[in-house]
Design goal:
There is one protein chain. Helix 6 (552-558) packs antiparallel against helix 7. This protein has 4 domains: 24-116; 120-142 and 162-294, 6 Propeller (Neuraminidase), CATH 2.120.10; 301-398; 406-550 and 585-669, Alpha/Beta hydrolase fold, catalytic domain (Rossmann fold). A hairpin with a 5-residue loop joins strand 15 and strand 16. With 674 residues, it is an alpha+beta fold. It is 16% helix and 37% strand. It has 11 helices and 42 strands. Strands 33, 34, 35, 37, 38, 39, 40, 41 and 42 form a 9-stranded mixed sheet that branches. Strands 23, 25, 26, 27 and 28 form a 5-stranded antiparallel sheet that branches. A 4-stranded antiparallel sheet has the order 1-2-3-4, with no helix packed on it. The protein starts with a helix and ends in a 5-residue tail after the last strand. The chain is globular, with a radius of gyration of 25 Å.
Length: 674
């Protein structure tokens, strides 16, 4: 029997790019307030439309199997329970249009409320069950705007008065802003709550139902409102007022406490301009006093999921959740390559509920020591679990097909970085690894947090015969303390680059790594690092830069987060110190690039605009360097995680093909005798 099982395992293959079409991903989770049912959504590729469909499921915890409530090529989002657990509301979209749908478990009868124009998101149900609040894109007409005169053709123009006039994943927004709206359920009437040139989000009803709390964010990130602050207003007649009048930093994800005397949120009080390296942490606000204090004085990590992988959006879920009547406030915390589920009380006492070598990416608590959550790890993209008074129950098996394939297992280790610092790293060996052989290796670089999440792309490389190494060097977005994240500010390509190369030194010291066949790749700030690496060393035989940063001078004015992000990363801006901005730009070292380079970019990437890739390609091509540019049409910065399935597969094929061309895939004897 053992021999037969071994033979069977040997015949199973690893993962290939086309396997993307098989995945099913757990997305949203909503635990009923009475703890009897869980509503959740499952996202999967839809090959016919080269897109995705998302369906809604409900699992009654006393029944063995869930029910699927939606069909067809539809999109379901913003799932929320009525406070008495008698109904679910959700936003629904298909080819026929958008709607709000209500489903009643007792009657199994759906109610459909068509929504003209922009869809709702971020729904929250009023305590009396008569209203839903949500967010919609809304055009704010300026008093200076005027209609064209009669008989005069209308101009085709874009009028820009604020920063962030284009946003990655959304497009050109110009005079459209996300505003708070209320849907009156008895009449289906819509009421607009906010009307200003600011983006509003995360609306929550007070427990009494007569007030709303929500986040307002200005488009100018050099103001106190530039990264989001909480507003409160009475409904239906009140005007929004700041919850914390003297707050200078950011405050997001408001949730009301018992008696509406306090509001929990995630944030920090560092003054503007926006600094994206400052950690959001749990806070509690006194509503009457307009003041707030941090909960958990010794917490030195980031609220939210900052794990980087290709299964779901990263740098997400910066939320706190507080079920009505419950003493515990729940949140995610990013720690050393993992995302863990915590809870804390109003006195600041906290505990970790869910941890391990894994990533908890979604959660929904109910009063009475219950929380539903989604968790993934290197062997599984994510399953639904229930934590109930310390007991854990798994509720889904979303990707059983993976058991018919072999998966490479990442090994974690720490190496010596700059100034004696320890750097967290991972290494995946080739799937058919044999002792005594040397293998080509791919070094994946980033400044966000590599993690214990499942990564399809890494599995593809391991199946093709590559070792894969990745490091969380200084400057990593989260997981190793605030000081570690701040360590590379104003020094892009300095000690962070040194630490990456120390990781390469440590890697090639292993007898099974072929130092002559190294590849390097990364996206976004990892694209920056890829560009920087090949401008400063010829150690790599091939490189692939993805959605990358090339020129800090032009990045300032062309990226949707350019003004605050460029200054926060480089410590300056072009007109204050042009020399420093250029010194921290990979393009400045283009003459030193000798490594064959594949550039992958999307034409609707507004985070790292296409012009960044074009500059690098033009410079290298002009100098006759080996370079190729592949542009994915209609895609944005999140191509690898949420692009069209056909494009995600092609991206993986292109990267793999480039490394196969310059590194090969075969192993060679570790010791060559003559």
């Amino acid at each position: 029997m053992v021999t037969n099982q071994t033979t069977f395992q040997d015949k199973r293959r690893g993962l290939i790019p086309e396997d993307l079409l098989k995945f099913r991903w757990l997305d949203e989770i909503a635990l009923a307030p009475n703890g009897t049912m869980i509503a959740y959504t499952i996202k999967r590729p839809h090959a016919d439309s080269n897109g995705y469909m998302t369906h809604l499921y409900v699992h009654h915890l006393n029944e063995p199997m869930p029910r699927r409530l939606t069909d067809g090529a539809s999109q379901v989002s913003s799932v929320v329970w009525r406070h008495d657990s008698s109904q679910i509301a959700y936003s629904y979209r298909d080819e026929a249009g958008t709607s709000i749908r209500l489903w009643t478990p007792s009657t199994d009868a759906p109610r459909i409320i068509p929504i003209e124009g922009e869809a709702f998101s971020s729904l929250d149900w009023s305590p009396d069950g008569t209203k839903l609040v949500g967010v919609r894109w809304t055009r704010i007409r300026s008093p200076e705007d005027r209609n064209p005169a009669q008989g005069i053709p209308a101009p085709t123009i874009k009028v820009v008065r604020r920063l962030r006039y284009k946003q990655d994943g959304v497009g050109w927004v110009e005079d459209r802003y996300t505003q708070i709206w209320v849907l009156e359920l008895p009449t289906s009437d819509l009421i607009q709550v906010t009307t200003s040139e600011m983006d509003y989000s995360s609306p929550k009803w007070s427990n009494s139902g007569d007030r709303l709390a929500f986040v307002g964010m200005a488009r100018e990130q050099n103001t106190p409102l530039g990264y989001g602050q909480i507003f409160v207003c009475s409904f239906p007649t009140g005007e929004p007022q700041p919850l914390l009048p003297d707050w200078q930093g950011t405050a997001v994800s408001p949730v009301w406490g018992e008696g509406d005397r306090c509001i929990a949120f995630a944030g920090h009080n560092s003054p503007p301009p926006v600094n994206r390296r400052n950690f959001w942490q749990p806070h509690l606000a006194d509503v009457a006093a307009g003041t707030a204090h941090k909960l958990g004085a010794d917490i030195d990590e980031e609220v939210g999921n900052y794990a980087v992988a290709d299964q779901r959006k990263s740098l997400a879920n910066v939320t706190v959740k507080w079920a009505p009547g419950d003493p515990w406030i729940y949140f995610l915390l990013t720690e050393k390559g993992a995302t863990n589920l915590y809870r804390i009380d109003s006195g600041g006492h906290y505990e970790k509920l869910i941890g391990g070598d894994s990533v908890t990416f979604e959660y929904s608590p109910a009063n009475g020591n219950m929380v539903a959550y989604g968790q993934g790890d290197p062997s599984n993209p994510g399953e639904l679990y229930l934590w109930n008074h310390g007991q854990i129950r798994r509720l889904t098996d979303l990707n059983p097909w993976l058991r018919d394939h072999r998966l490479a297992v990442p090994e974690t280790y720490w190496y010596d970085g700059v100034d004696g610092a320890k750097v967290h790293a991972w290494l995946i060996k080739p799937l058919d690894f044999v002792e005594g052989q040397r293998y080509p290796a791919i070094v994946y670089v980033h400044c966000s947090m590599f993690s214990w999440d499942f990564n399809h792309e890494f599995q593809i490389y391991a199946n093709a015969g590559y070792a894969v190494a990745y490091f969380n060097q200084r400057g990593t977005t989260a997981g190793y303390g605030q000081a570690w994240t701040h360590a590379s500010e104003g020094d892009q390509g300095g000690k962070d680059y040194e630490e990456v190369m120390l990781g390469v030194d440590d890697l090639v010291a292993r007898p099974y790594i072929d130092a002559d066949r190294l590849g390097v790749t990364g996206g976004s700030c990892g694209g920056f690092m890829t560009n920087w690496v090949i401008g400063h060393t010829d150690r790599f035989a091939a490189a692939v830069t993805q959605r990358s940063i090339v020129n800090q001078i032009s990045m300032f004015g062309t990226s949707d987060i350019g003004p605050e992000c460029t200054e926060g990363e480089t410590g300056t801006n072009p007109w204050r110190d042009l020399e420093s901005s250029w010194r921290q730009s990979p393009l400045a070292y283009a003459t030193q690039v000798n490594t064959p380079l594949l550039i992958i970019h999307s034409d609707e990437d507004y985070r790292c605009p296409l012009e960044q890739a074009e500059q690098l390609f033009a410079a290298l091509r002009w100098m006759g360097k080996p370079v190729e540019l592949v542009i994915f049409a209609g895609e944005n910065h999140g191509l690898s995680r949420g692009g069209r399935p056909g494009n995600r597969i092609e991206r993986q094929r292109r990267i793999l093909g480039w490394f196969q061309k310059y590194l090969g895939t075969h192993s060679v004897p570790a010791t060559v005798t003559t």
